[in-house]
Amino acid sequence: MRLSFDRGTLLLPGDLGGAESLPGVRWDARVGAWRAPACAYPELRRELRSRRIPFCDEALPPLPPPPAVAAPELRPYQAAALAAWEASGLRGILSLPTGAGKTRVAVAAMARTGLRTLCLVPTRALMAQWVETLRAIPALPVGEFGDGRRTEGPVTVATFSSARRHMETLGNRHSLLVIDEVHHLGAGLGEEILEMSTAGARLGLSATMPEDPRRVGRLEALVGPEIYRARVEELAGRWLAPYSLVTISVGLSPREREAYQFELAVFRPFCREFFDRSPGAGWEDFTRFALRSDEGKRALASWRRSRKIIHYTEEKRRIVGALLGEHRDSRVLAFTADNDAAYAIAREHLVQPVTCDIGRRERRLALERFAAGELRVLVSARV
């Protein structure tokens, strides 16, 4: 009996008795065979062996492992996070604040396991940061999928969007998945990246885990549970810079409020009717349903316009200007809800934007100049 990889899935012969009870296996009448998502590979292998079903495993190609590298020195909380991941069977999610060194923990995990690794990141900017970090490790070949590059190595970094396009071929070529900003997944969009990989070892990294139990459950199924969390309050003062969190409430102008209420008057009735009829449904279910009709598309368009109204209001514009003036002698990082707001601030205050639209060379130069004090302000979208 032959177990093979086929474009992000696993194939089993059609004459295999009892295959319908194997993990993730479904009948595929198109090819007359049993098929399972690639992510079922470790469990499927275990089950075939436990049932004493002889099989020829052709799912993984014979590829060389990465060269042995030394694990970086870790801070106590980083070492505890890595130990928790190892104790959980090399699966799970680490929740650490921004700046706490999640990438360093991931590099230590790669070094300790010695597994071929695919690092998944949501943006080109993050891909550039990961590649720079990994290439600083002597003798470690690093591949890239994204930002116009398509090279594979024993350690490869890929953006979510590029991985989605290439998992049919990349899906069985790595044994460890590292997913940075893993909270972007679990909502139905992009999950196929995780489903199409045979990698049994999976490490998710996040600073802002979702609270929606449906999304959390989906991430647990595809990556593993949250196995370690350190809050910023625990690390500030010793490992992270001390900080103050100040919340400034802003309102809408009469003109903005009128426009906002107009858009919500279109959106709310359609949204309310859907959730009344579908208790327990999530936002992703709603958007899929809305896209099936003109009325739903109008409702979604109104929702998007309502969000744009509140993302950068007249009062926010005034407060941002006042804050930049108040801190004119300091270096400032400004984060916005979307690119439009980032570009608006950049135009109004003649400061450098850093967004997903900016090329790699320009991003790197902007960050270097900011670090050197040549640029006083950088503004970027939150995502």
Q: Distance between termini? A: 46 Å
Please name the CATH architecture of the largest domain: 3-Layer(aba) Sandwich
- By CATH, the superfamily of the largest domain comes out as P-loop containing nucleotide triphosphate hydrolases
Largest sheet: 8 strands, mixed
What count of structural domains? 4
- Largest sheet, spatial ordering of strands: 9-8-10-7-11-12-6-13
Q: Radius of gyration from the CA trace? A: 24 Å
The CATH class name of the largest domain reads Alpha Beta
Q: What is the number of helices? A: 14
Order of helices and strands: EEEEHEHEHEHEEEHEHEHEHHHHHEHEHE
Structure classification: alpha/beta
Shape estimate: globular
How much of the sequence lies in strands comes to: 15-25%
- Proportion of residues in helical segments: 40-55%
Question: What's the total number of strands?
Answer: 16
**Low-pLDDT runs:** none
Under CATH, the topology of the largest domain can be stated as Rossmann fold
Q: What is the overall pLDDT average?
A: 94
Question: Mind explaining what this structure looks like?
Answer:
- The protein is α/β, with parallel strands linked by helices and 383 residues long.
- The chain has an eight-stranded mixed beta sheet.
- It has helices at 41-50, 76-87, 102-113, 124-135, 160-170, 192-195, 213-222, 232-235, 254-277, 283-290, 294-311, 314-326, 339-349, 360-371, and strands at 2-6, 9-13, 26-28, 33-37, 56-58, 91-95, 117-121, 142-146, 149-151, 155-159, 176-179, 201-206, 226-229, 332-336, 352-353, 377-381.
